[in-house]
Amino acid sequence: MLVKNAENRGQLEFVSLEEMVPQDHLLRKIEEAIDFKKIYEFVEDLYCEDNGRPSIDPVVLFKIVLIQHIYAIPSLRRTLEEVSMNLAYRWFIGYPLNKAVPHFSTVSYNFKHRFNHATVEYIFRWILKAAAEEGYLDTEAIFVDGTHIKASANLKKQAKKSVPKQAKRYAKELFEEINRDREAHEKKPFSDDSEKKAPEEKETVVSTTDPESGVFHKGEHKKCFAYEAHTACDKHNFVLGVQVTPGNVHDSVAFDPLYDELCKNYPEHKTVVADSAYKTPWICKRIFESGRVLSTSYTRPRTKEKGHPWWAYVYDEYYDDVICPEYRALHYSTTNRDGYREYKSRPYLCKDCPTRTMCTENAKCEKTVLRHIWQEYVEQAEEVRHMGQYRELYRQRKEKIERVFADAKEKHGMRYTQYRGLAQVTNWVKLKFAAMNLKKLATWKWKARHPGPDGGKRTKLQEESPCISLLFPFSFLFLCKKNCCGLIATTGFSTV
């Protein structure tokens, strides 16, 4: 029977938003997981109590931004359009159908001028504190890495600019260590004339659209202006901290402020898991001296092509010499300003060496081997790498921090940003990670309160055969072989 739907677009109905939103909706889980009234305490100092125009509820503003990041809506303009039409979104912010939602420019203005970095940091820490109170955080091991975010800047709009080189944070400590090492080897210490000299400059490419971004080019990636989010997470993929830098800043350079934040908020952590970009003498020294362990990967040594392998040069700690593959000693020469001890061979011995071409092509027939004054900490990290406990932790890195980046980009729209400036991008990234943490917290709390028929756990059959539904005809026959001989005969299959 043909049925034609009557157009009842002008019909008046009494509806309840509470009844229209499903009980297991994600926004319901979020509303139950956390008390949003806490936001009033964070923003109380930003509003005047007795004068001025009535403000939009700050909880509403934060909820709108959370909706944007949870559902990967690209802009606030589009977010407010979705909120005005979506019943679940209206229920979440507490706006009935006959009430106009705030204009997108109002929300944007508040997050650019009113809610500063401190407010966003409060929100980020507040959600993490709620997760810690529920016992969901496991900070014994912390996973660290960085991911690039494409900036809102055209690569064609660029200019070359000379900028001063950024001084290393540990420069003073390294300089003092170098002088102590030189004095121990009866060498004259270096004079500290850094204040007298003009700061060194380097020429770099700067975007005229967003000058605070940096050029990023790696592997098969297309060259572009980008930012980099240096991130740390725990074993349960909760984001614990993030530092945003221009895209041309190396991971090891941005590690110090991130690690300071981690040591301040989570001093109980015992292991830092990171890739080879973080295996520098300074980072190894800082982590091991603090009583913690750095679990990292193998770094392929950069040696001379068709030359002796790196392990053929053995350091003799007792005599402070380096033994070459031909069992000749390379003696200490000096300690340079970069913190490397130089060990040099005797030219008259190397001149008639049968493997000299595999060792050096120096005109003086002199081989130089460099060893950093903090190399012992790097060797300590290399020893840790072979221990089963830390090897397993590093194997989990792709399941932890890399999983966080994958979810952020594929599910939450962090592949590129429409914001410009380091401050705005930092707030944008922290709000996005805060939304991800809140989503995980809400989902876990809801599952704990509403367990499934099996208590929220997979059955034994599901664990042993996770893909049984995909291969049902065959799997069913093999699992039930004893009781389905007739079915086997009917289908034409035979067993041996």
Main features:
496 residues, Nucleotidyltransferase, domain 5, 6-stranded mixed β-sheet
User: Per CATH, what is the topology of the domain at 140-296 and 394-418?
Assistant: Nucleotidyltransferase, domain 5
The percent range for strand residues is: 5-15%
Q: Let me know the largest β-sheet.
A: 6 strands, mixed
Give the name of the CATH architecture of the domain at 140-296 and 394-418. 2-Layer Sandwich
> Any idea what the shape is?
elongated
- Regions with pLDDT < 50 over 5+ consecutive residues? 455-496
Continuous helix count? 20
In CATH, what is the class of the domain at 140-296 and 394-418?
A: Alpha Beta
Q: N-to-C terminal Cα separation, in Å?
A: 54 Å
Structural classification:
alpha+beta
What does the average pLDDT come to? Answer: 85
Q: Please compute the radius of gyration using only Cα atoms.
A: 30 Å
Could you provide a short overview of the structure?
With 496 residues, the protein is of the alpha+beta class. It contains 20 helices and 13 strands. It has helices at 17-20, 26-33, 39-43, 58-70, 76-85, 87-93, 104-114, 117-133, 171-184, 251-265, 281-289, 347-350, 356-359, 375-385, 388-395, 397-410, 422-449, 460-464, 472-479, 485-491, and strands at 141-150, 158-164, 201-207, 214-216, 224-233, 239-246, 271-273, 293-295, 314-316, 321-323, 329-335, 340-344, 368-372.
